[in-house]
Specification:
Blueprint lengths: L15 E7 L5 E7 L12 E10 L4 E10 L1 E7 L6 E6 L1
Length: 91
């Protein structure tokens, strides 16, 4: 088993990463985040700024699409060649 050190880390508190997808060659990674007040959380309001984003294999942000809504982005997908991405959630 090989241990790999992450090339970068982004903290999205209090939002949680909900979904990620990677292109076939690993050159593009898309992700999204959301917030839901699970039992034990102190923040009950699910309204806020949420985002879908894309990074390259080195961790450089290529684009992001941020919006104000409720609960956030729940799913992302990227085409095998990394040229098309899609995201969905609740506005």
């Amino acid at each position: 088993m090989t241990t790999v050190t992450p090339k970068y880390r982004r903290v999205l508190t209090p939002n949680m990463v909900n979904s990620v997808a990677i292109s076939d060659d690993g050159s593009r990674v898309v992700g999204c985040y959301y917030y839901y007040p699970y039992p034990g959380t102190t923040i009950k309001d699910t309204s806020g700024e949420f985002c879908a984003y894309c990074s390259d294999a080195n961790g450089n942000r290529l684009w992001s699409d941020q919006y104000v809504g409720v609960q956030g982005v729940f799913a992302v997908e990227i085409s095998g060649n990394g040229k098309v991405a899609a995201a969905g959630g609740i506005l």
